[in-house]
Specification:
Number of strands: 11
Oligomer: single chain
Order of helices and strands: EEEEEEEEEEE
Helix content: under 10%
Structural class: mainly beta
Distance between the termini: 34 Å
Number of helices: 0
Radius of gyration: 13 Å
Length: 120
Amino acid sequence: QLQASGGGLVQPGGSLRLSCTTSGFTLDAYAIGWFRQAPGKEREGVAAISSSDGSTRYADSVKGRFTISRHNAKNTVYLQMNSLKPEDTAVYYCATGRLATMISRYYNYWGQGTQVTVSS
């Protein structure tokens, strides 16, 4: 089972690090995407990392603030989120796929989400 964790309540300008892990398979064989969904809004891609060369992609809204990375020995993919803004508030999900893309239909295995709330 794929599991996202590390969410919580943080003040604007603060940081959080989300983790995506599983015990059922090795994540380094897959592209990993982070997505988020705020109330009343569609799910949107945030960041993705490829399985082949570790190349990364980011949504324009998070470029320069978020960093996606792998720790293969821990079978974990991280999403480091800095300079958080209230508009980053959402449930964050990780997913596995073949392509490191921001498009959700290219991902076929989704974990349960973790809530991130940015508020003073």
